[in-house]
Design a protein that fits this description.
The protein is built from five helices and four strands; from the N terminus they run H-H-H-E-H-E-E-H-E. With about 160 residues, the protein is of the alpha+beta class. It has two domains: about 5-45, Orthogonal Bundle (Arc Repressor Mutant, subunit A), CATH 1.10.10.10; about 65-140, Alpha-Beta Plaits, CATH 3.30.70.920. A four-stranded antiparallel β-sheet has the order 2-3-1-4. About 10% of the residues are buried.
Length: about 160
């Protein structure tokens, strides 16, 4: 059960989403509070699971990932053990940045980062194809990223 948070906690989370390196003093100044209660609130938000961690947002193109693909996967069999095995196998593939079990025409939606089309083809034919129980795979490629928001709309 999630515990409720108040408007001040929401403002703290919003500030940290905007800049995870912002100091407690800077957040306290923004909120018009002293540092001790802000520090205590942040620690409580972390303990209660509202803040899961901190990370750097890295530019994928500068790191050599020029191709982003969304790949839909349909499984042949939907028995629990096959679903669990597929999910375990997918988690071991570093190219898969996100994986969602979805409702609709497909079973899973994968977001995959690749260096280029040759790298993506290798991923599909060597890695994804080695996973058992896959019935069908369909790929769509990002031409232009219009919006990729990292901040949750918490207000």
């Amino acid at each position: 059960m999630n515990k409720a948070i108040d408007a001040t906690d929401r403002r703290i989370i919003h500030q940290l989403q905007q800049n995870g390196k912002e100091t407690i003093k800077e957040i306290a100044d923004f909120l018009g509070m002293s540092t001790t209660p802000v520090f205590e609130r942040i620690k409580k938000l972390e303990r209660d699971g509202f803040i899961e961690g901190y990370t750097a947002i890295v530019n994928k193109e500068k790191m050599g990932f020029q191709l982003v693909a969304f790949c839909t996967v349909t499984l042949e069999s939907h028995h629990t053990e096959f679903i669990n095995q597929f999910e375990s196998d997918i988690k071991s593939l570093p190219e898969v940045m996100e994986c969602y079990h979805i409702a609709g025409l497909f079973d899973y939606l994968l977001k995959i980062y690749s260096k280029d089309m040759v790298d993506y083809q290798n991923f599909i034919t060597q890695k994804l194809a080695s996973i058992s129980n896959i019935g069908r795979v369909q790929s769509s490629f990002i031409m232009t990223e219009v919006k990729n928001e990292k901040v949750l709309p918490i207000f």
